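Re: the 142-residue chain
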Amino acid sequence: MQFGTVAVILGGGGFLTRHNDGELEVLIVHRSKHQDWSLPAGKLDPGENLAECALREVYEESGYVCELGRELGAVEYTDRRGRARQVHYWEMDAVSGSFAPSPEVDAISWVPVVESLNYFTNRRDIETASAFLALVGTGVLA
């Protein structure tokens, strides 16, 4: 018997970007259940690795099939039920697809990357956007 260990719920998510009129935008999703704006992300399914989870979750929440870019790192937090969570994020580019509202995500928005820091409800999404900005620098955003 092992004592003092805590199970961590693992997940994946995406920082999906596009260029629009010379500006780099990121996709954010509105989750109706939580009434928040966040990056698309979710829990690992059995037999899935973190990258596969990230691609699946982005597709399920946004409707976009994506290609993985660089890994942006992970955020750790405690969820509303007191469980430890760790979500790994990747930059992503859309290959195909389009959004359709679902019970989980009722809206999406494309916002300029720098401005996204003002839209996110959760600190962990701000951390991920900040990691992306540190990786690419602000020079590529104009």
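The chain has three helices and seven strands.
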